[in-house]
Amino acid sequence: MRVRSRYVKFIISLAPGVKFSCMKGNTRVSLYLSKFNCMVNEGKINPDETPVEQKEGWVKMIPDEHLNALRKLYDGIHERGLNWVVTGSVSFCIQGVPVTPNDIDIQTDEEGAYKIAEIFQDRVIKEVEFSSTERIKSHFGALMIHGVLVELMGAVQKFYDGKWEEPIDIDAYKKIVELDDMKIPVLDLSYESLAYRRFGRVEMANKLEEYSEGEFI
What is the DSSP letter of 69? Predict the structure, then answer.
């Protein structure tokens, strides 16, 4: 979920024991919320699923529900030969950046977006389809896992310097971070910093650069 300055962060209670972070004014939220509540009522989602135990250290920045959702994703994806990475705020937390995680963003190729949605078909709240804005386009869909919104983005292209770039080659910027017994693929912070800077988000770019190893700067 993209953060805009005019949005005010708030928490909606979805069901007993479940909280969902979102941005006021984002029309997608109401659609996700409606679909999620229907899935709870139909027994397709158990909002009280037991979260995994958090470890000591910086991983405490990741809330239990996010860590639990990440494990569910990892278990379903990592042995299927798909090309994917975690990006956004959860990726930043995994790499040690002190930020508050929102949703979980999964970036992949076109095939991967549809495959992941198929793997988690009982958690789909927005079917994957091609989506385009003025600045970004991808094969976009969404899941709800353990009360956490998971956004899928396949073959992401960005509009920069007057033209559309080729889909991002995530292999070129991928690194593996060990989290508990998982080996999570993420986009390197140096690349993320550069991407944020190119789109004018200088404050976040500077923060990511501070924690990066500088490979792509």
Answer: H
Question: Please, which residues have CB within 8 angstroms of residue 140's CB and are 6 or more apart in sequence?
Answer: 113, 126, 128, 129, 130, 131, 151, 152, 153, 154
Residue 127, CB-side half-sphere exposure with 13 Å CA sphere: 1
Q: How far is CA 170 from the centre of its chain?
A: 15
Cα distance between residue 118 and residue 135, in whole Å: 27
Dihedral angle of Cα 145, 69, 72, 25, to the nearest 10 degrees: 40
- pLDDT of 154-166, one tens digit each? 999 999 888 999 9
User: SS3 of 78, please?
Assistant: coil
Share of the chain above pLDDT 70, in %: 71
List Cβ neighbours of 67 (8 Å cut-off, separation of 6 or more).
51, 52, 54, 59
**Nearest one of 136, 134, 131, 104 to 120, comparing CA atoms:** 104
Model pLDDT for residues 2-34, shown as the tens digit of each residue: 333 222 232 233 333 333 333 333 444 444 445
**pTM of the full predicted structure?**
0.71
| Per-domain boundaries in the chain | 57-211
Instruction: Please check whether the domain covering 57-211 is classified as CATH 3.40.50.300.
Output: no
